[in-house]
Amino acid sequence: MYHVVIHIRPSKSWPLDIASKHNIPIVVLDCIPFGERGVEALIEMDADEETLPKVVRSLREHPDIVSLQVADNPEGTLLATVVAKSWMAGSAILKSGCFLRGARTLDKGRTEWWLVAKDEASLRQLVGELESEGCQVEIRSKLEVKEPFALTKRQERVVTKAMELGYYDFPRRITAKELAKRLSIAPSTLSEILQRSERKLVDFYLMNRL
């Protein structure tokens, strides 16, 4: 099993359409198949009070989006379930046998996906599917996960959220205190979880490098 980060430059993508129009990143928290080429996705976006209604309107008006359900969020983050009849990148991931852990839009028409691939064949199939649809694909990292050293579910959830919100970006897009608040845990607990998780990931890297 592999944890993989890939960058995709798709020929068409409703998340990129919305993100570029309003200059805000979109984070895909989860998705499941819908029809032959569509998906139902849980997305999150940070936007101010003035921008949020515009984003919702753009989502509702996008030709690829079938339905939209928006959840109330007092922190100003848009949390919504989107059903899209066409999303080539998302459907390719689902067809390949890989599993989506999270995704976000980047600049220059790119998206970043965090995946779990059960084996090399699944990853090759995914890359082939994407390239056959006209996407540019770059594998940014691939880490083999051996079960005795795997992250716990809690560690994986915290590290994934930290990645999504830019805790590991340079410069950081969120502080440890803010991240702890988003996760509803104490800063000291967050620090302990991240340190243990990062130690495991470093061990993975060194073991596979030797």
Give me the secondary-structure topology.
Layout: E1 2-9, H1 14-22, E2 27-34, E3 38-46, H2 51-61, E4 65-71, E5 77-84, H3 88-96, E6 99-105, E7 111-117, H4 120-132, E8 136-144, H5 153-164, H6 176-183, H7 187-209
Helix pairs in contact: 3-4, 5-7, 6-7
How would you explain this protein's 3D organization?
With 210 residues, this protein is of the alpha+beta class. It has 2 domains: 2-144, no CATH class; 147-209, Arc Repressor Mutant, subunit A, CATH 1.10.10. It has 7 helices and 8 strands; from the N terminus they run βαββαββαββαβααα. The protein has helices at 14-22, 51-61, 88-96, 120-132, 153-164, 176-183, 187-209; strands at residues 2-9, 27-34, 38-46, 65-71, 77-84, 99-105, 111-117, 136-144. The chain has an 8-stranded antiparallel sheet with strand order 4-5-3-2-6-7-1-8. Strand 6 and strand 7 form a beta hairpin. Helix 3 (88-96) runs antiparallel to helix 4. It starts with a strand and ends with a helix. The mean pLDDT is 83.
Can you summarize this structure?
The chain is built from seven helices and eight strands. By secondary structure, the protein is α+β, with helices and mostly antiparallel strands.
